Amino acid sequence: GPLRAGQPTMKFVMDTSKYWFKPSITRDQAIQLLKDKEPGTFIVRDSTSYRGSFGLAMKVPISPSGSQTGTGTHSESDLVRHFLIESSAKGVHLKGASEELYFGSLSAFVYQHAITPLALPCKLSIPSRGRCQGQERCSERSLLLGWGDGDGPAVGRRLRSPAWLCAVLAVCNVLYLNSVNMETLTGAPAIQKAISSTFELETLPTPTLVHFRVAEQGVTLTDIQRKVFFRRHYPLAAVRFCGMDPENRKWQKYCKSSRIFGFVAKSQTDSENLCHLFAEYDTVQPASLVIDLLCKLL
């Protein structure tokens, strides 16, 4: 239906993810950040108890009364409750809430719960700006222009500002297709050749749903169903290139076609390059999210 006054858009949710998605903070840190905030203020982080899933910490308007979907509270006075967002091949889902839908991405989950609370105690409140663990406010301008610790342009060095590190993050679920040895080839020709080699296989590989995370430290892949691997990390220094298929070929997924992209990284065992191929899993979370950030970092 038409947007109501004050209702967030999906683009706004995705653009503000740097304020509400804090994958590396702890449960206690989330409580400290939220306990003095308005009801509905929230943080999504990586779950330490359930690999591949996420923890939702949110400030609630009243003292929690033991909902089946929550996973506990820090104290009655803090009014901060914790929920588990499970990841599966179907998408992400609020654990213990049978009436909840499956969503194709965390952004879609947040967007829907900002419109209606569903099984949550209240609607999520999307922040338009925020603070990163007590540091300076995250600045999109500093990310784009390359300013780091406030002491001038960060030319020829890595940015170390905790605020900047907090802002530099892009995540989405994708289908992992294949990894192809490229020897010394890199750039768009490597993506093109790897896809051609994959399509020429007698039996096409079976796609695997993975969580694709780009941060200042590099690329982290998590096999959500643990079918092919558990977790793989590619340091930023090892990544050579990232981009879409130059020929714009598509991977057939069920009855739909998905765009193909990949990144080239130096092998961890020798000096040759490997091209890792993926297909978009859901149009709600396009590959451009991770590609654009990775290209900026490179």
Automatic annotation (TrEMBL):
SUPFAM superfamilies: PH domain-like, SH2 domain. InterPro entries: PH-like_dom_sf, PTB, PTB/PI_dom, SH2, SH2_dom_sf, Tensin_PTB, Tensin_PTEN_phosphatase. Residues 20-128 form the SH2 domain. One of its GO terms (cellular component) is focal adhesion. Pfam families: PTB, SH2. It is found in: Cell junction, Focal adhesion. Its main location: other. Keywords: SH2 domain. Belongs to the PTEN phosphatase protein family. PANTHER family: TENSIN, TENSIN-4. This is Tensin-4. It comes from Pygoscelis adeliae (Adelie penguin).
